[in-house]
Every structure is written in C-alpha cells, then in structure tokens.
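chain below, 106 aa
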Amino acid sequence: MSQLFELVASQHRSFVVLATLRLPGHPLRRFTKEEAAILSRALDSVAKGDRGEQQIYMSPIASDHDFDARVEQSGIIVSSEGQADVELDWSETRAMAEQLRSFASV
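prediction:
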C-alpha cells in the first residue's frame, strides 16, 4: 500500500464499479474501468520515458474533480485547485499505474 495515495474499488448504481483515488489533502477522484486503464497506460508511458509528455490530464466522467499531473524528471506532481501539490516519484507513479491496471482488469 502506498503512503501517498490509496485506490479503492466501490460499487456504483450507474457505473457498476468505480475506483476512487485518494491523495492527501485532495478531493476524491473516481474512475470507471476504462478510465483507469487509460490513466494506467499514460502513467506507465511517462514512467518508462517512452514519450516526452509534460502533462497528464483526465476529466473522469464519474468524478467532480479532474486528474491533472505535471511530468517532472523525478516523477509526477498531481495538482488540484486550492490544494497543495502531491509529488509522486517514479516508484509511486508505477505503483499507481499498476493498481489502476489491476482495477481495470477485474
């Protein structure tokens, strides 16, 4: 289990199941299985250095809050308006990608 984030699956009457991402001091972000798979691939890609992306952005359909992360040399920095940034190193970024991938594949 990560110290900087938590991903929890829960039932939802419209979307069947959602993954809820918790980051310290940030609002909850909820992802469908498809969104979790897409975000997982994006995080994996930047962690591997496959692409020169500088930002990962997603506006999940089941969430009131966007996922917005800057890609830095040492990892990603997740931001949320009015909240302190949360920095995830590459190890944490890969762990988040893996948990999102696991959720999406169930």
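The mean pLDDT is 92. The chain has two helices and seven strands.
thats it, cya
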